[in-house]
Amino acid sequence: MQHLLSVDDINEKFILDLWERASDQKDNFSSSLKNKILTNLFYEPSTRTSSSFYSAMVRQGGSVIPINNVKFSSAIKGESLEDTIITMGTMSDCIVLRHPEIGSVSRAAKVSSVPVINAGDGKGEHPTQTLLDGFTIFYNNKEKIDNLRITMVGDLKNGRTVKSLVKLLSRYSGNHFNFVSPPDLRLPKDLLPKNSFQTEKIEEVISDTDVLYVTRVQSERGSNHQYSLSLDQLNLLPRKSIVMHPLPRVNEIPRAFDNDPRAKYFDQMLYGLWCRMVLLENVMS
Ligand code: NCD
């Protein structure tokens, strides 16, 4: 049984195979997951991730038990995460789990009789977002993911998508990272790759960027900054660069940039659906 708890659980071969199959999913409605049931167990809010797994499952003929609001589940009666996982393992073939605590997914995997997929564990990781983020770069960069200048902006301390993506991108040679944030929202030191530069000023790095990855301030995790990039700043980006954001967006990117050909943040959602279709098929069929 293969759990997906961290980017560390998947190797380059697995990822490349998934990306190569992902774009074939464009108009794919199959029955490869017929008679399979997925549990979506979300202890934190989600729009994209839970719906993306839901859609990926249904498009392949499977069904979903959606537990999106644990207020209406037995957790509110005091049931432990472990007992809920054992319960859902008897009723489904895979559990997608989002939970506010780092390490929750490992606790779940220890007792689960079915594969567990981490859909975000607090400030920890978000490996399926990384699969789609990596695919976005791969797909828009002639199937290459090395020798890039990557600029990451925002709440790098508390954002889990950044942490998983940095882990993935630092495996490929020649990637250089610029991290732009206020000093108190910097990426934790143990995650800083060798080839990286930290600054508070986007102007220092934006014109030397292939991939701009913008994130929101995680106010629910105690951050209280506000920031937004202006159109003037974004227009300093090279013409061939791409702009990504895991979403939800608050004010980080002005809506006036949405139709710019460099803006890929809405495309990312479609890529996420394709990547999750392949992932679920790998895990369950
Ligand atoms: C992200 C998350 O939940 O970590 N959202 C997502 O899954 N696309 C990013 C965020 O909430 O800021």
List keywords for this structure.
alpha/beta; 8 helices; Rossmann fold; 4-stranded parallel sheet; 2 domains; 15% strand; 30% helix; 9 strands; 5-stranded parallel sheet; 285 residues; binds N-carbamoyl-L-aspartate
Can you walk me through this structure?
The structure is a single chain. The protein has 285 residues and is α/β, with parallel strands linked by helices. It folds into two domains: 7-125 and 272-284, Rossmann fold (3-Layer(aba) Sandwich); 128-268, Aspartate/ornithine carbamoyltransferase (Rossmann fold). Helices cover 30% and strands 15% of the residues. It has eight helices and nine strands. The protein has helices at residues 12-22, 48-58, 81-89, 104-111, 127-140, 160-169, 231-234, 267-284, and strands at residues 37-42, 63-67, 94-99, 116-121, 149-153, 176-180, 196-199, 211-214, 242-244. The strands form two sheets. Strands 7-6-5-8-9 form a five-stranded parallel sheet, with helices on one face. A four-stranded parallel sheet has the order 2-1-3-4, sandwiched between helices. N-carbamoyl-L-aspartate binds next to helix 2 and helix 6.
